[in-house]
Amino acid sequence: MSVAKKDYKRITTKSLIEMKSNGEKISMLTAYDYTMAKIVDTAGVDVILVGDSASNVMAGHETTLPITLDQMIYHASSVVRAVERALVVVDLPFGSYQSDPKEALRSSIRIMKESGGHAVKLEGGKEIKESIKKILHAGIPVMGHLGLTPQSIYKFGTYSVRAKEEEEAEKLIEDAQMLEKIGCFAVVLEKIPADLAKKVADSISIPVIGIGAGGAVDGQVLVIHDMLGMNNEFSPRFLRRYLNLYEEMTKAIGQYAADVKSSDFPNEKEQY
């Protein structure tokens, strides 16, 4: 059953909670630069995530761990300058919040002041509870992230589906309820069984955004380079490619190179 969409001129954390209450699904995509963010925002996506996935797709690192706070602020400020409607959420990178709540607050304040972002996202549950509370007490909105948490890849040792066992599933539900209780406005669930994701979404009143978490949650997020097919080496089950830009761009760039070599470009109409 389709739900009538409210026309939000500007998406806020309150807008997302209203969307969940009204049964309207939430769209979320990553962006890391001005040009791409402008396109994503104009297309009507509700939330833009300046993800630490920039470490992979923008810088070519194997994991999200190497990206720094300064680099995240650079990417986030580029995105914010492009956006008129979407809510901009910025990942706190690895090492900027886990060890010390005061450090977590300092990192979050820098992101908010220097990038103009609207909220921050942190990976983890009760183990980072005090860091989240410290940030929230300063008036900074926080989005949680549970399930597969890429910043903990060396702890897990694999990017496989999380929370398939009962003990981990119960902890995930408890963590999601804790995140809501202390004041988070939403939570991302990554790569967990669809039935468990539905249980989480039904058990809390804040929006649950899924990536590889089935269709019964309140919204979906994908990495834009994956969704547009710019990255042809990553093909998890949850990914739907809406374009094959790798092929199209390779063809176009190859044609440009050939036209330059043959002196076909520029032609007479393309000169002054």
UniProtKB/TrEMBL annotation:
<keyword id="KW-0566">Pantothenate biosynthesis</keyword>
<dbReference type="GO" id="GO:0000287">
    <property type="term" value="F:magnesium ion binding"/>
</dbReference>
<feature type="binding site">
    <location>
        <position position="123"/>
    </location>
    <ligand>
        <name>Mg(2+)</name>
    </ligand>
</feature>
<dbReference type="GO" id="GO:0005737">
    <property type="term" value="C:cytoplasm"/>
</dbReference>
<keyword id="KW-0963">Cytoplasm</keyword>
<comment type="function">
    <text>Catalyzes the reversible reaction in which hydroxymethyl group from 5,10-methylenetetrahydrofolate is transferred onto alpha-ketoisovalerate to form ketopantoate.</text>
</comment>
<dbReference type="InterPro" id="IPR015813">
    <property type="entry name" value="Pyrv/PenolPyrv_kinase-like_dom"/>
</dbReference>
<dbReference type="InterPro" id="IPR003700">
    <property type="entry name" value="Pantoate_hydroxy_MeTrfase"/>
</dbReference>
<dbReference type="GO" id="GO:0015940">
    <property type="term" value="P:pantothenate biosynthetic process"/>
</dbReference>
<comment type="pathway">
    <text>Cofactor biosynthesis; (R)-pantothenate biosynthesis; (R)-pantoate from 3-methyl-2-oxobutanoate: step 1/2.</text>
</comment>
<feature type="binding site">
    <location>
        <position position="121"/>
    </location>
    <ligand>
        <name>3-methyl-2-oxobutanoate</name>
    </ligand>
</feature>
<feature type="binding site">
    <location>
        <begin position="52"/>
        <end position="53"/>
    </location>
    <ligand>
        <name>3-methyl-2-oxobutanoate</name>
    </ligand>
</feature>
<comment type="subunit">
    <text>Homodecamer; pentamer of dimers.</text>
</comment>
<keyword id="KW-0460">Magnesium</keyword>
<keyword id="KW-0808">Transferase</keyword>
<feature type="active site" description="Proton acceptor">
    <location>
        <position position="190"/>
    </location>
</feature>
<dbReference type="Pfam" id="PF02548">
    <property type="entry name" value="Pantoate_transf"/>
</dbReference>
<dbReference type="GO" id="GO:0003864">
    <property type="term" value="F:3-methyl-2-oxobutanoate hydroxymethyltransferase activity"/>
</dbReference>
<feature type="binding site">
    <location>
        <position position="91"/>
    </location>
    <ligand>
        <name>3-methyl-2-oxobutanoate</name>
    </ligand>
</feature>
<feature type="binding site">
    <location>
        <position position="52"/>
    </location>
    <ligand>
        <name>Mg(2+)</name>
    </ligand>
</feature>
<dbReference type="InterPro" id="IPR040442">
    <property type="entry name" value="Pyrv_kinase-like_dom_sf"/>
</dbReference>
<keyword id="KW-0479">Metal-binding</keyword>
<feature type="binding site">
    <location>
        <position position="91"/>
    </location>
    <ligand>
        <name>Mg(2+)</name>
    </ligand>
</feature>
<comment type="similarity">
    <text>Belongs to the PanB family.</text>
</comment>
<protein>
    <recommendedName>
        <fullName>3-methyl-2-oxobutanoate hydroxymethyltransferase</fullName>
        <ecNumber>2.1.2.11</ecNumber>
    </recommendedName>
</protein>
